[in-house]
Amino acid sequence: MTVFKKVAVVALVLVTAACTNPDRFGGGAGAGGADGAGLNGGTAGSASDPASPLFFNQTIGDRVLFAVDTSTITPTGQTILDGQAQWLLTNADYRAVIEGHADEQGTREYNLALGQRRANAVREYLVSRGVPTTRLQVTSFGKERPIAVCSEESCYAQNRRAVTVLSFSAVTS
Length: 173
Hints:
Elements: H1 3-20, H2 53-61, E1 63-65, H3 75-90, E2 94-101, H4 108-128, E3 136-142, H5 153-159, E4 161-168
Parallel strand pairs: 2-3
Antiparallel strand pairs: 1-4, 2-4
Helix pairs in contact: 3-4
């Protein structure tokens, strides 16, 4: 091995090591303070921090599922959305985009409309629980973004959903 190749390998190893060290910039594990603790005892930004989007996604749940060809929110969906509404009311600096999805059955146009109805149903539910309309947007992806790709009911059921995607921004109104 030539000297150039040895230097290139060492440089590659050093660059890779620098990219895998989460504390490479110092300052602890999180942005929540010197000890990395968040406001409510969890590590800021982690799933244990009740104010973090990761907590929202993993603990409260960022999606609700629908039955075939419906935009009716189930009792299970209502429970999830009650948690989302409470979280959004507590964390007023976040906005949300509600994405409506459908399974692969049906035409593209039909599924776009169905996804829109599902997203609107979730939005209306969150608004009925006190979340300001100015913080919520809706969009439909129809059947264009499946999370499970197969032609079985188990996959279809996962794709019939509305997902609440958070974004952080100062809400001015």
